[in-house]
Amino acid sequence: MRFVNIFIPLLMLMAVGIGNAAEKTVTKAVSVASGFTSIDVANGIQVIYTPSASVSVKVTATAEDMEGVKFARSGSTLKIYRKMEWFGHGGRNKVIVTMSAPALKEYEVSSGASIEITSGVNLQSESIEVEASSGGSVSANGITCRSLEVETSSGASVNLGLVKAESVEVEASSGSSARVTGSCTSAGLTASSGASISAGELKASSGKVSASSGAGVSSAIANLVRSSKSSGGSIRNSAK
Which residues pair with 209 in a beta bridge? Predict the structure, then answer.
């Protein structure tokens, strides 16, 4: 009995050791051709992106998960995703893609993926589009552009700070959330189906706001041209 009492904990310790060894991560440089102006990230991949003059991409993951990480080009879009298996997720461990590239115009995330932009994006004469769905998220500080379009849905979230743009359009639905701060000339904010838009720190000269089906919008629009709410929607405009 004493042997059994010693042997079982020993097996448990060995199992923990093997498990820890399996969880060890590695970092690998990936060759990606330049020329893309948008990224599309899916399946739980976490992207940490820094605007830069040159392209550099590294992946940090376990050896097993590393095999499932895929990069593909579709026109001007770089797609980054994790290969899915028949049963469940393609991997249960975190996969981090650290990349630098010239300023991008479009950012799309889905299926629990995320993009963190670590420094300002300056495309003063261009339009920038951000789309997040199915639990995906995008965060950034310091976006300068001509127009900014944000779309969130299905529990996704977008957090953009210190925005400077002529126009900002935000559409949130299905329990998703969007937060935008900064300043713009015109703003269009539309929330539905339990979604929320926090734009109380986005100073806009004029704009339109709509909230429906339990959604909520906070804004800071000096000249609120139109305000529409229905089915339990709420709007709070605090411009001074």
Answer: 189, 227
